[in-house]
Design goal:
The chain is mostly beta strands and 201 residues long. 10% of the residues lie in helices and 68% in strands. The protein is built from one helix and twelve strands. Strands 1-4-5-7-8-10-11-12 form an eight-stranded antiparallel barrel. It is elongated and about 60 Å long.
Length: 201
C-alpha cells in the first residue's frame, strides 16, 4: 500500500513541477471567496469485526474512489472551508478467525462526510505553494453486503492532509494532495491521493 501511495504522490508532484517550469511567471494567487473540488483514489484500511460470541476477523477492501467539493475563504496564508466529500470502495474479502478467507460478492462501502477544514499555505516562489492542515466533522458509513445494507449514525470524523498547488492565472489553481481520513466510532480509515482544482474570486 505504501509503495503505491508514494508512486502516486511522486507522479502528481512531477506533473505540478512541470507546470511550474512552463509558466513560472504566473500571477500571484488572489484572496477572497474560494471554491474547490477534488477527485482521486481512496485506499481503505481493513476493518476488524467481533460479535462477542466467537465470530471475529477482518474485512479488506479493493482500491476505491474519493471526491468532494468545498466553499470557503482564502485569507492569503490560510484557507478555511466547509467541505462535502464522498468515499467508496468494494469489499474484497473477509478473513474469519478459525475459517480463513471468504470472498464477499456484490458488496461495497460508502462514506459521506461534512467537514470544517483549515489549511496553512506556504508560498514557494510567486505561483507555487505547499499546504498542510486538517479538519473535523461528521460522517455516515453505509455498508452493502450481498443485498443487505447497514448505515451508521452521524459519527465524529477527522482528517489530516498536505499537498501542493500551482496558480495558473485568473484565480485558478491546480494541485495534488494526500489525506488521512478517519471515522472513529466505526473504525473506518482511508488514505486518499487526489488531484484538485480551485477558483478564488
Amino acid at each position: 500500500m505504501m509503495r503505491r501511495l508514494l508512486g502516486q504522490t511522486a507522479m502528481a508532484a512531477g506533473i505540478l513541477f512541470g507546470f511550474g517550469a512552463i509558466n513560472a511567471q504566473a500571477e500571484e494567487q488572489p484572496t477572497g471567496l474560494r471554491i474547490h473540488g477534488f477527485i482521486g483514489t481512496s485506499d481503505v484500511d481493513s476493518i476488524p469485526f467481533d460479535d462477542g460470541e466467537g465470530f471475529s476477523g477482518e474485512i479488506s477492501f479493493s482500491d476505491g474512489a474519493s471526491g468532494g467539493v468545498s466553499i470557503g475563504a482564502d485569507l492569503g496564508n490560510f484557507v478555511v472551508e466547509a467541505e462535502f466529500a464522498a468515499r467508496s470502495a468494494d469489499l474484497d474479502q473477509a478473513y474469519v478467525d478459525g475459517t480463513g478467507y471468504v470472498v464477499i460478492p456484490s458488496s461495497d462501502a460508502q462514506v459521506n462526510a461534512v467537514m470544517a477544514n483549515g489549511w496553512w499555505q506556504i508560498p514557494v516562489g510567486s505561483a507555487f505553494e505547499l499546504y498542510l492542515g486538517g479538519g473535523l466533522g461528521l460522517a455516515e458509513v453505509e455498508v452493502n453486503i450481498a443485498g443487505y445494507s447497514a448505515e451508521s449514525d452521524a459519527e465524529l470524523a477527522w482528517q489530516l492532509g498536505a499537498g501542493a498547488a500551482f496558480n495558473i492565472g485568473k484565480g485558478f489553481s491546480i494541485g495534488a494532495g494526500y489525506r488521512r481520513f478517519e471515522v472513529d466510532d466505526v473504525d473506518v480509515a482511508t488514505n486518499d491521493i487526489f488531484f484538485e482544482v480551485a477558483k478564488v474570486f
